[in-house]
Amino acid sequence: MNLEQRVEFWEHAFICRALPEGDGRYAAELEHADEPVSRIEPVPDALRLHGTPGEALRHAKLHAMQWVHGRTGDAQGHF
Questions:
Q1: CA separation for the pair 21, 32 (Å, rounded)
Q2: Do the beta carbons of residue 60 and residue 2 sit within 8 Å?
Q3: How far apart are CA 55 and CA 11, in angstroms?
Q4: CA nearest 68: which of 44, 28, 76?
Q5: How many H helices and E strands in the chain?
Q6: Residue 74 confidence (pLDDT)
Q7: Amino acid 53: pLDDT
Q8: Are 33 and 15 in contact (CB under 8 A)?
Q9: pLDDT at res. 37
Q10: Where are the domains of the chain?
Q11: Which domain of life, per UniProt (predicted)?
């Protein structure tokens, strides 16, 4: 499984990652990919650690959607 995916939501690009923690769990990480200097967006602790890479990637994508929604208002029709 690929542990990194690029996603775009409403003019914002992100790189979502599942990082192995060494104990069989994976941490979700979200990076802003559309800025001159890339910036890691903190993923809330409740969404950070997961049992599979797929879960970690899904929650990183969810956090990206929530980040965009929080800054664009009700942009659901644009996704």
A1: 22
A2: no
A3: 24
A4: 76
A5: 2, 5
A6: 58
A7: 93
A8: yes
A9: 65
A10: 4-74
A11: Bacteria
Using DSSP's 3-state secondary structure scheme, residue 39 falls into strand
Tokens coding 51: 């049992």
Structure token digits, residue 23: 């104990």
The structure tokens 């602790």 sit at: 45
State yes or no: pLDDT of 79 exceeds 60: no
CB 73 within 8 A of CB 17: no
The neighbour count for residue 68, using CB atoms within 10 Å, is 18
Residue 54 pLDDT: 92
For residues 62-69, average pLDDT: 86
Instruction: List Cα–Cα distances, 17 to 12, 13, 57, 74, in angstroms.
Output: 16, 13, 6, 26
pTM over 0.90: no
